[in-house]
Amino acid sequence: MLARYREKGLEEGLILEAIRQAAAHGARSPLAYIGRILDQAAASGQLTLAAWQAAHRGGGGGGKRVDRPSPSGNDFLADAAARPRRHKRKG
To answer: Does residue 28 fall inside a structural domain?
Structure first.
């Protein structure tokens, strides 16, 4: 099965990474999972591991720090001690 993808021009490193992905994600049917990854890579022209990783690099900025030049001026804790406490209404 995997020889078919080598004939399509996919490099061996990409095939091994597809196998690693299937194992890492605990695929129920790993051959179908591997086949889908490799079919999509071949269809989009990603024949090398480097090209595939560049296209599938994680993003979203989940761990990036945001530095703001100055405070926004909305310090809601500045008058916390002087503010009356709000209680739940009864009834």
So the answer is: yes
Q: Which domain holds residue 50?
A: 2-55
Give just the sign of the alpha carbon dihedral 47, 8, 31, 13: negative
Report if residue 84 sits inside a domain. no
The number of CA neighbours under 13 Å toward the Cβ of 42 is 18
User: Distance (Å, rounded) from C-alpha 91 to C-alpha 89?
Assistant: 7
Cβ(15)–Cβ(52) below 8 Å: no
The pLDDT tens digits for 54-75 are 888 766 666 677 777 777 777 8
Query: Is 66 inside any structural domain?
Result: no
Give strand ranges (E) for the chain.
none
pTM of the model: 0.61
Cα–Cα distance for residue pair 27/52, rounded to 1 Å: 20
